[in-house]
Amino acid sequence: MSDRDEKKLSQETAEDLPVNFIQSIISQDLQSGKNQGRVHTRFPPEPNGYLHIGHAKSICLNFGLAAANGGLCNLRFDDTNPSKEETEYVESIKENVRWLGFDWDDRLYYASDYFDQLYEFACQLIKEGKAYVCDLSAEEIREYRGTLTEPGRESPYRNRSVEENLDLFERMKNGEFPDGARVLRAKIDMASPNLNMRDPVLYRIQHSHHHRTGDKWCIYPMYDYAHPLSDALESITHSICTLEFADHRPLYDWCVENVDYDKETHGRPQQIEFARLNLTYTVMSKRKLRLLVEKGLVRGWDDPRMPTIAGLRRRGYTPEAIRDFCERIGVAKRNSTVDIALLEHCIREDLNQRAPRVMAVLRPLKVVITNYPENQVEWLTTENNAEQPEMGTREIPFTRELYIEQEDFMEDPPKKFFRLRPGGEVRLKSAYIIQCQEVIKDDQGQIIELHCTYDPDSKSGGPNANRRVKGTLHWVSAQHAIPAEVRLYDHLFLKENPDDDEEEGADFTSFINPHSLEILTESLVEPSLASAPVESRYQFLRQGYFVVDPDKTNGKLVFNRIVGLRDTWAKIKSKEG
Ligand code: ATP
Ligand code: MG
């Protein structure tokens, strides 16, 4: 973590945090002396995909609340479903959490660390008559469960003896039965108004290889059983999860209450639900993100259009901007969708402060200054960030042949076009005023270059330095410019809520924006960027914020546009205000 990050995190004391309802609960608990004044949270990803911006919200919340309250936060992999999990995901998740600026110290855990313990707990439940082995098929279990309006029916296996249950459960563990033949169920209440309490399944048979425990187990605990008990064993105080688990809370509490772990030492974790993050023009579920990757609709999990942490990072987002975003959206009890313009606003604010300004011409048009001496090179001084003078200045080369942006010249412009036109004048940023004398075209009538003259007195320090012309353009010296590929991005989806009409059978991939990636292969950047390192970020004057991509196309630098300069969020806000 950089000094800057460290400072920012340590400054986030409880007083600074916008008070959210979870902080209020924690504050009350601290005041009443609950959990002996301890605050201990965890971030519990399932290692079955890459993390996305929704997970970032959960990470910021869990690590942030712990830090703000003098507590601890664990990283725990919820690896109870071996068929879908992989070590590759474990590594990427750890890297993502670290990159976001958080540290679990030595508190890295896996639910699979507790498999032995969880098995012991299950045997105990059986001995106390609180769990039984059930031979109904998955479909029968569903049938017997009843509905919201009808109570369930008891399984014919519900009243097996403790001895029989213990024997069968052990044999399940020993691999004597095929997948799906039997399950272990909690014996709770088949008439409960909460379907989760109608004898939920605690263990299933699954003969599959686990990325950590190998082939040791062929029965695996269900999430609803493993999760509360993992929390308990780690002495978690506040177990923060998303709203869809609210209906599971009674089962969470049942497990904590009925399993005989050392409550004196570990206390009782409390589940608290908050609304998950949804973003406009984006899908967020791992399943859908995986589909985009597998169908080749994006270039990979770290495609800069993906809402994954890896994608946002490659796009050029900073951890500071993402943390700022997570803080601004706050936590609520009701699901809602956040405007993606707010995320873009956060990175723009961050980079506006610290990104050096440089000149890059995305779609070049050649300009020859006919009255400028051939072979002359003048190194002109320009500021690195006009808003941050302490960022200093640099020298840029001016020569007879330059490039400007194609769209900065129009032969027959409308009235308010303040850029270059035949006979018109503009200032070249930190250089001279030029006037367009002649438009050179090829056989097809395409403009290939402009012949201009310059006013030698118009540069900084000269007698005409303050002569006013309407437009100022960015430019690069033809001789010095460095060829680059520039990738421009737009929203991945055309629709604000691409998964809205799913129930009606709409396929979210049909709303993909076919123009979400535009690749410019002829761009030119100023020579100071020659050895710009991967992940360095710049403002290209008048074009937006860009980051150096790890790719090199034919040895050329590749830049991703992070965001344009226009702040649509600020506009939305001012309209509302
Ligand atoms: P998905 O639905 O995208 O597959 P998940 O909930 O299955 O996500 P997990 O790996 O189980 O993914 O999530 C780890 C943690 O991140 C959980 O505590 C979960 O509640 C939280 N989380 C997941 N998605 C979001 C989201 N969109 N907003 C906030 N928190 C989220
Ligand atoms: Mg999950």
Give an account of the 3D structure.
About 30% of the residues lie in helices and about 25% in strands. It has about 575 residues and is of the alpha/beta class. Strands 12-25-26-27-23-24-13 form a seven-stranded mixed sheet. A seven-stranded mixed sheet has the order 21-18-19-20-14-17-22, with no helix packed on it. Helix 3 crosses helix 13 and helix 13 crosses helix 14 (about 340-355). The longest helix has 16 residues, at about 55-70. It binds adenosine-5'-triphosphate and magnesium ion (MG). Adenosine-5'-triphosphate (ATP) binds near residues 45, 46, 58, 241 and 276. Adenosine-5'-triphosphate (ATP) binds next to helix 3 and strand 8.
Distance between the amino and carboxyl termini: 37 Å
Tell me the number of helical segments per DSSP (H or I, 4 or more residues long). 15
Share in β-strands: 15-25%
Largest sheet: spatial strand order = 12-25-26-27-23-24-13
- Computed Rg: 31 Å
Task: Determine and state the CATH class of the largest domain.
Answer: Mainly Alpha
Secondary structure tally: strands? 27
Bound molecules: adenosine-5'-triphosphate, magnesium ion
What class do helices, strands and sheet pairing give?
alpha/beta
Number of domain modules: 4
Name the shape in a single word: elongated
CATH topology of the largest domain: Glutamyl-tRNA Synthetase, domain 2
Kindly report the name of the CATH homologous superfamily of the largest domain. Glutamyl-trna Synthetase, Domain 2
Low-confidence sequence ranges: 1-15
**Taking all residues together, what is the mean pLDDT?**
94
Give me the CATH architecture of the largest domain, please: Orthogonal Bundle
Multimerization state: single chain
